[in-house]
């Protein structure tokens, strides 16, 4: 049996992985979206399902009442130690946080700020069974600290709540010819060596490095162990090593793919005669490979479709900031009932915290959802969006005369507000089926169905990412500023089908 990369074809950025018994678990960056720290499960490293999130809200809560799309949770590390799961991550504006739980589904502890400071990113712990000591390594974000291309190491207490020294630079990328933007370290102990697997060279064009030393604080030797070579997998790097029960080694990493974000690849891994890891096909990413030596698992992928039973939405959805009570209301039927939240920023979806999002699929797909606008408030609107540095949406809006119009709007990345992508038209009964066909290169064609079949709307829209985050699909309901409740909109039968 063979598998094909990527094994997660959407924006599961900066993955890390751990095995506990026969189960594999993966987490990824979630940046400013809530809930954060997605938790995925697999038994064969190829088929993954989303089983929850470890972080209910971003902290400090006051910093994330508004969208901060490229901030928040960066590059987490997932570990299992002392019969607990541990996640460490860096918030580039706050510092290094840690949470832990007795079970993967929680309950997870409240975030503990382990090291405060600007630009502290990509932390990874290690509990050394040989010495009984614990360590932490992290990288630096120059945008906040003025420092980059180096890894700092600390001794850490066994509870993961305190660092025991001031820290020391254990790898300085400026001293390695040709290396730059060294980041994303993952720390291991193997065969008597301390190992740091860390990427360099930038997310779009870089490579995966390995470092080894007999002592945690160095000195370290380095080697490039995975790079693009003659493949079409640009910048293959930043991920985690995991070993199967039979002793096979595997490496999960990402590939930066523009508006699709960072998709996840699985590489075979072995230890060469010289003691260094060999990833992929002699250091080049594989496109197709024999599956891991693990029991067969049914084909699976993180959920996308949703009928919103009882008004509840599935695990695949995340808000663009910490949510407020009442944005989505539960009820006795099916369908997502979103409150038309009043906002002075209704003209710019990028500024709104009350957009419910999920990842843009990495393969050509059609997205459909039914929408009904209940609000009688003039200017109230609801719709389906492709959201990034530029955005476009299609949906319904209540006019000043009480009529409902189908509208399709967009904004370029440099634009401060949206404008029409198509002439508005009447939607007599306040209902519509919305459709977006996502083609190659994340080029999006919008459609509407007011009961007379699908009709195209506006020109093709090319989805764009934010700086570090892939484009998102979003559902929203809004109203202009004013007094009182502005009503609601109901979304139903959300579907994503591959084209």
UniProtKB/TrEMBL annotation:
<comment type="similarity">
    <text>Belongs to the glycosyl hydrolase 43 family.</text>
</comment>
<dbReference type="InterPro" id="IPR023296">
    <property type="entry name" value="Glyco_hydro_beta-prop_sf"/>
</dbReference>
<dbReference type="InterPro" id="IPR006710">
    <property type="entry name" value="Glyco_hydro_43"/>
</dbReference>
<protein>
    <submittedName>
        <fullName>Glycoside hydrolase 43 family protein</fullName>
    </submittedName>
</protein>
<dbReference type="InterPro" id="IPR041542">
    <property type="entry name" value="GH43_C2"/>
</dbReference>
<dbReference type="Pfam" id="PF04616">
    <property type="entry name" value="Glyco_hydro_43"/>
</dbReference>
<dbReference type="InterPro" id="IPR051795">
    <property type="entry name" value="Glycosyl_Hydrlase_43"/>
</dbReference>
<keyword id="KW-0378">Hydrolase</keyword>
<feature type="domain" description="Beta-xylosidase C-terminal Concanavalin A-like">
    <location>
        <begin position="306"/>
        <end position="496"/>
    </location>
</feature>
<dbReference type="GO" id="GO:0016787">
    <property type="term" value="F:hydrolase activity"/>
</dbReference>
<dbReference type="InterPro" id="IPR013320">
    <property type="entry name" value="ConA-like_dom_sf"/>
</dbReference>
<dbReference type="Pfam" id="PF17851">
    <property type="entry name" value="GH43_C2"/>
</dbReference>
<keyword id="KW-0326">Glycosidase</keyword>
């Amino acid at each position: 049996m063979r598998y094909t990369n990527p094994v997660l074809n959407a924006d599961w950025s900066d993955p890390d992985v751990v095995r506990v018994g026969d189960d594999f678990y993966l987490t990824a960056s979630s940046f400013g979206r809530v809930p954060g720290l997605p938790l995925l499960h697999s038994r064969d490293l190829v088929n993954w399902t989303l089983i929850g999130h470890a972080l209910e809200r971003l902290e400090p809560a006051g910093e994330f009442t508004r969208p901060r799309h490229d901030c928040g949770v960066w590059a987490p590390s997932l570990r299992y130690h002392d019969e607990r799961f541990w996640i460490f991550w860096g918030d580039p504006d706050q510092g290094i946080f840690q949470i832990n739980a007795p079970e993967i589904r929680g309950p997870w502890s409240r975030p503990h700020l382990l090291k405060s400071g600007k630009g502290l990113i990509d932390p990874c712990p290690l509990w050394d069974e040989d010495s009984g000591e614990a360590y932490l390594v992290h990288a630096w974000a120059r945008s906040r600290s003025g420092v980059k291309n180096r890894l700092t190491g600390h001794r850490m207490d066994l509870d993961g709540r305190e660092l025991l020294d001031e820290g020391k630079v254990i790898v300085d990328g400026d001293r390695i010819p040709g290396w730059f933007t060294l980041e994303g370290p993952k720390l291991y102990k193997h065969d008597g060596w301390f190992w740091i697997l860390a990427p360099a060279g930038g997310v779009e064009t870089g490579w995966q490095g390995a470092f080894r030393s007999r002592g945690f604080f160095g000195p370290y030797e380095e080697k490039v162990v995975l790079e693009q070579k003659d493949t079409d997998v640009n910048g293959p790097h930043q991920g985690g090593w995991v070993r199967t029960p039979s002793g096979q080694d595997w490496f999960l990493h990402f590939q930066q793919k523009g508006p699709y974000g960072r998709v996840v690849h699985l590489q075979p891994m072995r230890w060469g005669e010289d003691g260094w890891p060999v990833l992929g096909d002699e250091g080049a990413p594989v496109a197709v490979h024999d599956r891991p030596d693990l029991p067969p698992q049914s084909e699976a992928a993180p959920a996308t479709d949703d009928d919103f039973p009882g008004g509840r939405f599935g695990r695949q959805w995340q808000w663009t900031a910490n949510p407020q009570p009442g944005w989505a209301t539960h009820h006795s039927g099916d369908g997502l009932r979103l409150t038309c939240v009043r906002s002075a920023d209704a003209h710019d979806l990028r500024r709104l915290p009350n957009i419910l999002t999920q990842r843009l699929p990495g393969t050509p797909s059609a997205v459909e959802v039914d929408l009904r606008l209940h609000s009688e408030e003039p200017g109230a609107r609801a719709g389906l969006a492709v959201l990034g540095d530029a955005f476009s949406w299609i949906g319904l809006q209540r006019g000043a005369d009480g009529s409902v119009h189908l509208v399709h709007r967009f904004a370029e990345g440099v634009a401060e507000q949206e404008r029409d992508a198509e002439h508005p038209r009447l939607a007599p009964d306040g209902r519509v089926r919305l459709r977006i066909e996502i083609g190659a290169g994340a080029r999006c064609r919008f459609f509407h169905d007011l009961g007379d079949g699908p009709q195209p709307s506006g020109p093709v829209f090319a989805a764009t990412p934010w700086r570090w985050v892939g484009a998102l699909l979003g559902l929203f309901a809004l109203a202009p500023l004013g007094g009182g409740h502005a009503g609601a909109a109901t979304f139903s039968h959300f579907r994503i089908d591959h084209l």
